[in-house]
Automatic annotation (TrEMBL):
<dbReference type="Pfam" id="PF09844">
    <property type="entry name" value="DUF2071"/>
</dbReference>
<dbReference type="InterPro" id="IPR018644">
    <property type="entry name" value="DUF2071"/>
</dbReference>
<dbReference type="InterPro" id="IPR023375">
    <property type="entry name" value="ADC_dom_sf"/>
</dbReference>
<protein>
    <recommendedName>
        <fullName>DUF2071 domain-containing protein</fullName>
    </recommendedName>
</protein>
């Protein structure tokens, strides 16, 4: 689907609010068959002009809180690195995560229980210096495939808002994430945020093995790279997708 999805917030109160900082969208085109076979029943791989995309997104989270409550002790701020692709349930385009590495054990434990997102414990670092954002992650989760990511990225152009219908818009205007329920069904969490202020980005990666558990070896440079300095986000509770 090439059209921009409906961006209206879902009905009902949101559950979580947070801020994403120093977020990099790093994207590679990949063979569709390498991803489609790994999706659960009820989801279809979403492609742009017939091309499937795999994204790696490192960022720092701050101010995580439940509705009406102050920031969550021990889990308000953390680092995250996710490996994702783009899907649809036939009604709402969204995101499917193959892995989400994070450096806070409390967050990892909670998110793996409900909504059963594939969070994995990792040792991580995030440092700004010399105009670059330096980001590193080494997975430490027991029983999970080893994976690492080390590199740096920086903005190389002025902020812009993606043109509706463009590839940049298609990759970033996603207002739902999907996960598998304990009984094998499908869950969807809706999210809402303001328009993306993307900046063209230069990425220099020293190591990147996140996609190797999928049987994919990504080129050292992403085909597309964008930086977002900050974005405020609200997330709704996961709901079962009715088929």
């Amino acid at each position: 689907m090439d059209a921009r999805p409906d961006t209206a917030p879902p009905p009902g109160p949101w559950l979580l609010a947070m801020r994403w900082n120093d977020l990099a969208f790093l994207h590679w085109p990949v063979p569709a068959e390498a991803l489609a076979c790994r999706l659960p029943k009820g989801l279809t791989l979403d492609t742009h002009q017939g091309v499937a995309w795999l994204g790696i997104v490192p960022f720092a989270v701050s101010g995580t809180r439940l509705r009406w409550l102050p920031p969550i002790p021990g889990a308000a701020s953390y680092l995250e690195l996710n490996l994702r692709t783009y899907v649809t349930d036939g009604r709402k385009p969204g995101i499917w995560f193959f892995s989400l590495d994070a450096d806070k054990a409390l967050l990892v434990r909670a998110a793996r229980i409900h909504p059963r997102l594939p969070y994995l414990r990792a040792r991580m670092a995030h440092v700004r210096g010399g105009g670059w954002v330096h980001f590193a992650s080494w997975r430490t989760h027991r029983g999970a495939p080893s994976a690492s990511f080390t590199g740096r990225y920086r903005a190389v152009g002025a902020p812009f808002r993606p043109v509706p219908g463009s590839l940049e818009d298609w990759l970033t205007s996603r207002f739902a994430l999907y996960t598998r329920a304990r009984d094998g069904g499908l869950l969807r969490s809706d999210l809402d945020h303001g328009p993306w202020e993307l900046r063209p980005c230069e990425a220099d990666l020293q190591s990147n093995t996140l996609a190797e558990p999928l049987g994919l070896h990504l080129p050292p440079r992403p085909a597309l790279a964008h930086l977002v300095e900050r974005q405020d986000v609200r997330i709704w509770a996961a709901r079962r997708v009715e088929r």
